[in-house]
Design brief:
The complex is a heterodimer of chains A (about 475) and B (about 400).
Chain A lengths: L3 H10 L1 E5 L3 H12 L5 E6 L14 H4 L18 E4 L3 E5 L4 E4 L4 E3 L2 E4 L3 E3 L5 H4 L4 E2 L4 H12 L5 E4 L3 H12 L4 E5 L6 H4 L1 H13 L3 E4 L3 E6 L5 E6 L4 E3 L2 E4 L3 E3 L11 E2 L2 E3 L5 E3 L5 E7 L4 E5 L5 E4 L3 H15 L14 E6 L2 E7 L6 E8 L4 E8 L2 E8 L5 H9 L20 E2 L14 E4 L7 E4 L5
Parallel strand pairs in A: 1-2, 1-7, 2-3, 7-21, 9-16, 10-11, 10-16, 11-12, 19-22
Antiparallel strand pairs in A: 4-5, 5-6, 8-17, 13-14, 14-15, 18-19, 20-21, 22-23, 24-25, 25-28, 26-27, 26-29, 27-28, 30-31
Helix pairs in contact in A: 2-9
Chain B lengths: L8 H6 L8 H8 L3 E3 L5 E3 L2 H8 L4 E2 L27 H10 L15 H13 L6 E3 H6 L1 H11 L6 H15 L8 H25 L7 H7 L9 H17 L1 H14 L1 H9 L4 H11 L6 E6 L3 E3 L2 E3 L4 E4 L1 H4 L34 H18 L4 E2 L19 E3 L4
Parallel strand pairs in B: 2-8
Antiparallel strand pairs in B: 1-2, 3-5, 4-10, 5-8, 6-7, 9-10
Helix pairs in contact in B: 5-7, 5-16, 7-11, 8-9, 9-11, 12-16, 14-16
Classes of the chains: A alpha/beta (about 475), B alpha+beta (about 400).
The complex binds flavin-adenine dinucleotide and protoporphyrin IX containing FE.
The site of protoporphyrin IX containing FE has 25 residues of chain B, from α11, α12 and α16.
Chain lengths: ~475, ~400
Amino acid sequence: MTSADNLRAFKRDGRIVVVGASLAGLRAAEALRDEGFTGSLTMIGDELGEPYDRPPLSKQVLTGWVSAGDTTLPRRRDINAEWLLGVPASGLDLATNHVRLADGREIPFDRVLISTGVRARPWFVESEAALDGVFVVRTREHAEGLQRALAAGPSRVLVIGAGFTGSEIASICRERDIPVTVAELAPAPLVGALGAMIGDVAADMQRAHGVDLRCGVKVTRLEGDAQGRFRRAHFDDGSTIDADVAVVALGGIRNTEWLRDSGLAAGVWGIACDTGCRALDLNGLITDDIFVAGDVARCPNPIYEYRLISLEHWANAVEQAQVAAHNMVSGQADRWPHLSIPVFWSIQFGVNIKSVGVPTFADEVVVSQGSVSDRRFVAAYGYRGRVTAAVSFNNAKWLDHYRKLIETAAPFPPPCPTPDQPVDMKPVPVDFPGPTLLAQGATVVVTGHDPGERRVTAAQYHR
Amino acid sequence: MTTTEMPGTLRRILDYSSRADPYPLYAELRETPVARQEDGSYVVSTYRELTQLLHDPHLSSDVRNLARPMPSAEGGGTPAFINVDPPEHDRLRRMAMRHFGPPHTPGMVAGMQGDLTAIVSGLIDDFAGKEQIDIVDDFAYPFPVTVICHLLGVPREDEPRFRLWVNDIINSIDYDPKIDPKEKLENGVRARQDLREYIGGLLEQRHGRPGDDLLSRLANDDGPDGRMTDAEIVATANLLLIAGHETTVNLITNGMLTLLRHPEVLQRLRDEPGLVVPLVEELLRYEPPVHIIPWRAAYSDIAVGDTVIPKGSQIMLMLASGSRDPNRFHDPDRFDPDRRDNQHLGFGSGIHLCFGGPLARLETQIALTELVRRLDRPSLVTDPPPYRRSPVLRGPIHLNVEQGAG
Ligand SMILES: Cc1cc2nc3c(=O)[nH]c(=O)nc-3n(C[C@H](O)[C@H](O)[C@H](O)COP(=O)(O)OP(=O)(O)OC[C@H]3O[C@@H](n4cnc5c(N)ncnc54)[C@H](O)[C@@H]3O)c2cc1C
Ligand code: HEM
């Protein structure tokens, strides 16, 4: 698509296919129509039913306040699309520009948007994962099942993994007065995302709300009874715990397997793209007609040294979808870069946690406003002397200020005092367990010697 | 962006002669987004810089952080949370909000719809037989005052007494020692004392007697933050009384004035009552009741744009100018109730964002809906109408309307 005429013709009656019909896919489709795209639009999704919103699934849906069926995403406009739901895409042929469906159908396109997101990482032993009472939470059906199990009044719930989702679910259990044990391999909840200092705060918060929090332990086995009902969990220290419900909250797996033979730079870390949301191929060359948005995308961010960053954040999915849609129907000169500073929120134990920036991109952290013991504070994150992120507990109104500090590479620690300054404001090491964004393993091998021959191939998938 | 002085522009804005239309002067002001004044204070007039400052934790609402303390009408009393910084501000606001809205008292404002409509209907019924209506005296003033008195638990009969106090207090808000007579400040100080004593007297009767009004609730209810001291309750009640008096009046009046100047919008509002919601938002942008936050203090050096405002400086925030900034709002001088993405500064922004916003919105929505529904071919008697003195809380002092014309 080179000339302006071609672009006009494409906007008028081109064919766009969106694979993954959830938040990013729907918002992109709406934006495409807003942009004046009048061609054919096909939405491919493996889930049945209207696109819905996921954040409530670990919050209001589990308290019973909102039913899982009431999480349908509001429609911003009519998108006049053909919906192919209930069948997953199984391949992408870039030579002929077709999406292959698992039932054998081939869907042709001029341009495609990939927004296949993430699925829940299942319990690693299939037979144990299949026990009655063992849950993950990613879809509406998952949340509905778990809500029913919680409503039945279990004697105890075991939450495996104390990231955001696991912590939110533990919070709901306490709100419903259900005994809950949280097992986490790391030294504290939320450390993987927010580091040790906030992890300690989160641990105190959980214990203060009556959570039986066990850190530094690994669940090794889920045991069922003769009826196939989950009854007991075994830990690596030899101890056990009896419970009727186990929630496996071990993060997500990016839905990229279907792209294995596509020649795109897709892997466990997502699909690499440029800031214009165009996918990279295996060689790191930019493609023209393949776009990516949402949780499955891995996009460079200039603010973070142009590193490729994957985010599982609602707002990022929405913004990236908007940019991708715009670029799909715009000429090279009119393209937008997706440059927003990430934001994320979570609600747990009565605290509204919000972050701006990329907290894992940091070496130090300091409480810059408020009081940790009151659980009302802002912590600023710094990397080599500049502000790169901030996290607030019940203090979200200040985060716009920190966004500005991040955007302007303001010095860390923030030098000027504020009225609400903690007395002991001293930066501490941020302390993330395990590999983080700053250290990611190789996933490809390079072959060939001459510049004209050098090519990349994907390394074996393993996790 | 430089910090050159804007000789005269601010002066002219504050001068009464520009009250009817300060907007061209705001445009002039915006040529220097952060303008240092001769006296060392800073005037901020552009949307981006205003929002940035309103979210900057180095900006203080506490007079004690000014290098050159201003003469204050507070008169040494306990300040209300509008003039306090975190963490005290947050604690007091939280304790007051417990009785005013979500999460502790959700649906409180929405639940007032019926009562508000009844008050409005009663006031409009009283228009019957009048040749001219003063939208201010006959409607826009008595309505929110009745509401806030009822909410607080202040007897409506006492209103004429505290109307005078509130007037003196409002007049002293923008006291300028260089041009204003000293009585202006002294009257304000005295009025605050009188109002404090009056509210203090009501409060004494409330202790140990739980009731539904806000004073009783504040006096008796113990939330997670404990109970406010009597001085804090009095300061909070004063704040609500003043804020509930002097702002909604202007929004309703400005609303009627704007509708009468845009008859096609008035007609649309008659035909599609749902329009009132975005219309009130657009009013808060286009003709807001609060034009200026007259002072804030730089708690430490503040970088905004290319300027560093030194610690201790006084900062004047020109909210109404920010809401007309062409770099933020397309065609900003056009009244357009269909405007999208209307993040105006009418209620301020950040932690001091108006506490009464939901109430003020609902009051104004009901007031305008009923006025256009029931007035018969209304028209303005004088345009522009006479204005109140204050450049801070700006609005007509009277708005005479005739019915049945043309
Ligand atoms: C329980 C929970 C709570 C959350 N809470 C928050 C929160 O508080 N704050 C926040 O910022 N974010 C939160 N998130 C994250 C947020 O929901 C995601 O960022 C968002 O859903 C991403 O949208 P997406 O469209 O990119 O991906 P997804 O929502 O994952 O959608 C991808 C879609 O593609 C489909 N799909 C996958 N593979 C294929 C295929 N091969 N063929 C066809 N279709 C396919 C999937 O079934 C799915 O419908 C939460 C997520 C969960 C699960
Ligand atoms: C249209 C009507 C109103 C407008 C335009 C308005 C506007 C504003 C503005 C701009 C502020 C910010 C002040 C600052 O940042 O220093 C504010 C604060 C405030 N308003 Fe309003 N207001 C209105 C009605 C009300 C009503 C009806 C009430 C009470 C019921 C009220 C109570 C308050 C309070 C208590 C604050 C201080 C909040 C704080 O400091 O945290 N307001 N208002």
